[in-house]
Amino acid sequence: MRLKKIQITGFKTFPEKTEFNFDQQITVIIGPNGSGKSNISDAIKWVLGEQSAKNLRGQHMNDVIFNGTTNRKPLSLAEVNLHIKNEDNALPIEFPEIQISRQIFRDGEGKYYINKQKCRLKDITNTFLDTGIGARAYSIIEQGQIEKFISASSIERRPFFEEAAGIMKYKNRKIEAMRDLEKLNDNLIRIEDRILQLESQTRSLKRQAAKARRY
Predict the structure, then answer these.
(1) Are residues 33 and 121 in the same domain?
(2) How confident is the model at residue 131 (pLDDT cuts 50, 70, 90)?
(3) Which long-range contacts (CB under 8 A, 24 or more apart) does 66-71 make?
(4) What is the pTM of this model?
(5) What percent of the chain has a predicted confidence (pLDDT) above 90?
(6) Domain identity same for 10 and 98
(7) Backbone angles phi, psi at 30, to 5 degrees
(8) In the chain, which end has fewer C-beta atoms inside a 10 angstrom radius, N or C?
């Protein structure tokens, strides 16, 4: 599994559709300050499901949409498509190549796609669980992140080790199972309350029926 290419349209400093191909094992992107190098890594994190505008160096999520210049009008949509080679079937989707897409509009509406089929953010997150790829996974190392990791507490480091060890998906399944169990318990409580209510109504109706028979 490896990144094949990324297509960026209307995202931050890329108003036009821009494509970066990663044909080699090692690809280096160089350029002067302000040329948009960091925005490429932001685009990768964003399409993989990043939900924090702060982690994308913005205040609001729709800040990622190209905001215009003196010569160009602002755009109403940002879109990023990530193409990943999956010939080794490292991802749980039976295709040799997988396309992950994300869109956001000015009104805040967002859409997610896997192989051009609309999906949920959860579907994308689950696809990359325990692969090291993801919005917060260890495959994306930003400037200063290694220093933060070294100085972090054991609790703060734990998610990275869990991801590397391949247990995050099981942990997430446990959390989901606990949520489902909690919902079932809530439903049982409501059903029991309803049964008690119906039993009370039944006793009242029986008393009324007995009283009616006496008269």
Answers:
(1) yes
(2) confident
(3) 66/10, 66/11, 66/12, 66/13, 66/14, 66/15
(4) 0.69
(5) 47
(6) yes
(7) -120, 160
(8) C
Q: Is the pLDDT assigned to residue 133 strictly greater than 80?
A: no
- Rounded CA gap, 22 and 26, in Å? 8
Complete edge-to-edge strand list for the sheet that includes strand 2-9: 18-21, 2-9, 77-85, 97-105, 110-114, 117-119
User: Whole domain around residue 198: which residue ranges?
Assistant: 170-215
Output the domain CATH number for residue 31. 3.40.50.300
Query: Mean pLDDT, the chain, as a whole number?
Result: 87
Residue 76 identity (one-letter amino acid): S
Secondary structure string (H, E, C) spanning the chain? CEEEEEEEECECCECCCEEEECCCCCCCCCCCCCCCHHHHHHHHHHHCCCCCCHHHCCCCHHHHECCCCCCCCCCCEEEEEEEEECCCCCCCCCCCEEEEEEEEECCCCEEEEECCEEECHHHHHHHCCCCCCCCCCCCCCCCCHHHHHHHCCHHHHHHHHHHHHCCHHHHHHHHHHHHHHHHHHHHHHHHHHHHHHHHHHHHHHHHHHHHHHHC
* Structure tokens, 124: 């994308």
Work out the percent of the chain whose per-residue pLDDT is above 70.
92
**Number of compact structural domains in the chain:** 2
* pLDDT of 104 above 70: yes
Residue 35 lies inside a defined structural domain of this protein:
yes
Res. 137 pLDDT band, cuts 50 70 90: low
